[in-house]
Design a protein that fits this description.
The protein is mainly beta and about 475 residues long. Helices cover about 15% and strands about 45% of the residues. The chain has six helices and 28 strands. The strands form six sheets. Strands 1, 2, 3, 4 and 5 form a five-stranded antiparallel sheet that branches. A hairpin with a 5-residue loop joins strand 20 and strand 21. The protein is elongated and about 80 Å long. The two termini are about 35 Å apart.
Length: about 475
C-alpha cells in the first residue's frame, strides 16, 4: 500500500541505490537499441525466402533496478508506523524538507535514516524516527518527540567538534510561535542539548574562528517584541549560552518573509552576521553581530538612540558582496532626484563595508532599476552631478541619465538604458545607436549614448557602460530554519 519513494532518498544516497543520474536506464535503452540492430541484421541475412524463426519474451531482456535489501527493510518499518495511525509530516521550511532524509550523524561513514511523522492520537504528535544502518538492514535507534502544529525545520551541524552531527529542530508550536531544540545522537538514544526555547530565526556560524560552530538564536526579549540575539557555544559542560546582544528591530520586523539573517565578512576578514528587518513604513534596519575583543556585540547599535545606524528605505536589497572583493557590503538608499526636480527616487544605492569597530566606508554606488531587473555601477565622477527619469510603455521601459545642469543651464540627457520585450524586440534593439548590454529569453537590454555625452567631462564609452551594467539576479530563498 505504501512504498518508500526514491525521490525521498535521491538527494542523499544516489550512489547506494545504483541510480546515478539515470545512467542505468540509459544503458538499458542503449542495450535494447543494440539488440534491435543485431536482430535486424540477422533477419536481413536470411533473405526473403528463409525467414529466421526467433521467439523471445521482451520482458526477459531486462529488469528494472531493485530496491536494495536494507531499504526494503526500512520501507517495511516505515509502513508499520503509517499503519499505526501516523502520517508523513516533512519539515515545512528550510533546505531539508524531505519526509525521509539520509544523514551520517555519528561519523562512521554510514548514513542514518530520519523519517518525519505526525500521529494526532499521541500526547506528543510530532515525531522524528532515527534509524541506524546495520549491515543490510536499518534498526530504530531513537525517536525525538515534540508538541505543536508541525515540524518547522531541521538542520544538521557538528556543534561540539567531535565529528558527530547534532540535530537542530524548529517546532511550529502555534501560528505565531516557534520553539528551537538541539539534539545529539548517543549510544543510549538522543540527548537534548538545548531545551525548547522560543525563537524567530537562528544561524549556525563560527564567529570566534575556532574549530567549532556556534549557534545564534534571535528571539523576543519582552512583551513589546524587542529583540535580542543569544550566542551559544560548546563548553566542557555542554552547549552553553555565552552572551546576549541587543538588536534594534522588533521580532515582527524580522519574522516576515522580508527578514533575513546572512553570514558575511567585515573589512578585516572577521566573520559577522548581518540581520535585516523591514518595518511597516517600508524601511530596512540592519544589525551586524560579531566578536569584538572576544565579546559578542552589535557593532552598529547606537549608544545614544539604542537602534542601528543602518536604517534606510527598503528597496528589496540585502547585504551582499556586491563587488566580489570577499567583503560583505550593506546597501543604503540615497535620494536621486528626477530631471525636473520633482519628488526624488530613492534609487541610488551606496554600498558600505564595515570594520570591526563599527566604522564604515562606501565602496561602491549603484543605480538599481528594481522594476526592470538591472543595475548600473555609477562612476564616482557622477556623484552629485546627474539626474534621472524613467518612462515605460507596453514593451519598452527606459531610464535616462541627465547632466544636472549648472549656472542656469537646462539638464541634458546623455545616456539611456532600455529594457525591451515583445515579439519585435530584436528589431527594436538595433534602432538608432542602440548597443546590446544583455539578453534573456524574452528580454533584451540595450543602451544608447546621447548627444550630450560627447565632450561631457564625465561622459562614458560603450565599453564602460557594458562593464558597469549587471542584471539583478533573483535570490532563491528556501525558507527559514
Amino acid at each position: 500500500m505504501y512504498a518508500l519513494n526514491y525521490a525521498h532518498l535521491q538527494k542523499y544516497d544516489l550512489e547506494e541505490t545504483g541510480l546515478r543520474g539515470g545512467r542505468t536506464v540509459k544503458r538499458f535503452w542503449r542495450g535494447a537499441l543494440l539488440l534491435g540492430t543485431v536482430l535486424a541484421i540477422l533477419l536481413s541475412a536470411t533473405g526473403c525466402g528463409s525467414v529466421a524463426k526467433l521467439t523471445f519474451n521482451p520482458q526477459e531482456l531486462y529488469s528494472l533496478p531493485k530496491l536494495p535489501a536494507k531499504y526494503t527493510e526500512l520501507n517495511n518499518q516505515l509502513n508499520e508506523i503509517l499503519e499505526g495511525g501516523a502520517e508523513y509530516a516533512a519539515p515545512t521550511s528550510g533546505t531539508n524538507i524531505q519526509p525521509v532524509q539520509l544523514i551520517d550523524l555519528d561519523g562512521d561513514g554510514k548514513k542514518e535514516a530520519l523519517a518525519f511523522f505526525r500521529n494526532s492520537a499521541d500526547e506528543k504528535p510530532l515525531k522524528i524516527y532515527i534509524f541506524e544502518s546495520k549491515d543490510d538492514t536499518y534498526e530504530l535507534a531513537a525517536v525525538v518527540e515534540g508538541s505543536g502544529a508541525a515540524i518547522y525545520s531541521i538542520s544538521y551541524s557538528d556543534l561540539d567538534g567531535d565529528g558527530k552531527t547534532e540535530l537542530i529542530v524548529g517546532w511550529k508550536v502555534t501560528a505565531a510561535l516557534q520553539a528551537l531544540s538541539v539534539y545529539a545522537l548517543r549510544s543510549t538514544g538522543t540527548e537534548e542539548l538545548i531545551r525548547s526555547t522560543n525563537y524567530v530565526k537562528y544561524a549556525v556560524t563560527n564567529l570566534d574562528q575556532d574549530q567549532r560552530q556556534e549557534l545564534v538564536v534571535l528571539h523576543a526579549a519582552d512583551e513589546e517584541g524587542g529583540g535580542v540575539a543569544d550566542y551559544y557555544s560548546w563548553q566542557p559542560g555542554g552547549l552553553t549560552l555565552e552572551s546576549t546582544a541587543r538588536i534594534s528591530m522588533d521580532m515582527a520586523e524580522l519574522s516576515g518573509q522580508q527578514g533575513r539573517v546572512l553570514a558575511g565578512t567585515l573589512q578585516d576578514g572577521t566573520p559577522a552576521l548581518f540581520v535585516t528587518g523591514v518595518t511597516e513604513s517600508v524601511r530596512t534596519i540592519t544589525d551586524i553581530l560579531t566578536m569584538r575583543d572576544q565579546e559578542f556585540t552589535n557593532i552598529v547599535l547606537s549608544a545614544v538612540t539604542g537602534v542601528s545606524t543602518e536604517i534606510s528605505l527598503f528597496r528589496s536589497l540585502y547585504p551582499t558582496d556586491i563587488n566580489g572583493d570577499g567583503i560583505t557590503e550593506v546597501p543604503c538608499s540615497v535620494p536621486l532626484p528626477t530631471w525636473d526636480d520633482e519628488q526624488g527616487y530613492y534609487q541610488r544605492i551606496d554600498w558600505k563595508a564595515y570594520g570591526s569597530d563599527g566604522t564604515s566606508a562606501t565602496v561602491l554606488s549603484t543605480y538599481h532599476d528594481i522594476e526592470d531587473g538591472w543595475y548600473l555601477r555609477l562612476p564616482e565622477s557622477w556623484d552629485g552631478r546627474i539626474l534621472v527619469s524613467r518612462s515605460s510603455g507596453s514593451e519598452e521601459a527606459s531610464v535616462t541619465f541627465y547632466t544636472r545642469g549648472e549656472n542656469g543651464e537646462l539638464p541634458e540627457p546623455f545616456l539611456r538604458i532600455t529594457t525591451i520585450t515583445g515579439a519585435n524586440r530584436e528589431t527594436k534593439a538595433v534602432r538608432g545607436n542602440r548597443f546590446n548590454l544583455a539578453r534573456q529569453q524574452e528580454t533584451i537590454y540595450v543602451a544608447e549614448l546621447l548627444e550630450a555625452n560627447q565632450g561631457l567631462e564625465y561622459g562614458v564609452t560603450e565599453d564602460e557602460v557594458r562593464a558597469a551594467f549587471s542584471r539583478i539576479t533573483k535570490e532563491w530563498v528556501s525558507g527559514d530554519n
